[in-house]
Amino acid sequence: MRRFAPGWGMTLLVAALLPVLVMLGFWQLDRAADKRRCHDRYVERLSLPPQEFPADLAGADFLRVRLDGGYRAEEQYLVDNRVRDGRPGYWVVTRFLADDGRVYLVNRGWVAAPARRDELPRVPAPAGRLRLMGVVWPDTGLPPLLAPDPWPASWPKRVQRLDVARMAGEGEAVVAAEVRLEPGQPGVLAAAPLAVDFAPQRHQGYAVQWFGLAVVLAVGYLVFGYGRS
């Protein structure tokens, strides 16, 4: 009768790796569940009528909001390296002074870049008192910078990233959130996308891979242990 004798070295290796593989599998399942919850919140909130901007940013992601006030037309950020249909351009983020006394960072959408790099696009904003409808967009993190990104002191400011925290720090009562204009709103350009692919299935697939590796490791351990006897 064969004895199970994998040896201490193999046993210690499997004891170290197997819990890690299982943990990674459950972690991916948790991420898939988080993505499903985000998707449900996204669908629910975009179906609701616009509301006043909440006082607390916590949990405001994907809320449709209504802003009454006026653009600060000269105070614009041009977010570089935004490509649309193969064409280089900018996202235009214009400050908007609302009736509640706060200043909002309104992403008006995309505009094509001029042919010359040393030129900036001219993007006028509607004057007067306006009502805007937009979506509070979540902070998805900042892309890495390949070089320093000093911001000019004068307007408009060409910047490499839509860094709402940094933008909010440049003025008083500036809300650290991106409000993406909905199509058809005053001052909107080629509207920034409001569609999101949360793809929980991708994380479920990763979980299957991790659990599969755990099974392969366990089976291999058994085969190795009995094969040495």
What's the arrangement of secondary structure elements?
Elements (H helix, E strand, L loop, with lengths): L7 H39 L4 E2 L11 E21 L2 E12 L4 E10 L17 E8 L19 E3 L4 H5 L5 E8 L18 H28 L2
Parallel strand pairs: 1-2, 2-6, 4-7
Antiparallel strand pairs: 2-3, 2-5, 3-4, 5-7
Tag the structure with descriptive keywords.
229 residues; alpha/beta; single chain
How would you describe this structure to a colleague?
By secondary structure, the protein is an alpha/beta fold. The chain has a domain at 48-181. It is built from three helices and seven strands. The protein has helices at residues 8-46, 164-168, 200-227, and strands at 51-52, 64-84, 87-98, 103-112, 130-137, 157-159, 174-181. A five-stranded mixed β-barrel has the order 2-3-4-7-5. Helix 1 runs antiparallel to helix 3. The model has no long low-confidence stretch (mean pLDDT 86).
Give a short synopsis of this structure:
This protein is of the alpha/beta class and 229 residues long.
Q: What's the overall geometry?
A: elongated
- What is the radius of gyration? 26 Å
Strand portion: 25-35%
* Fraction of residues in helix: 25-40%
Identify low-pLDDT runs: none
Total helical elements: 3
Mean pLDDT: 86
Summarize the biggest pleated sheet. 5 strands, mixed, barrel
- SSE string: HEEEEEEHEH
> N-to-C terminal Cα separation, in Å?
9 Å
Structure summary, number of beta strands: 7
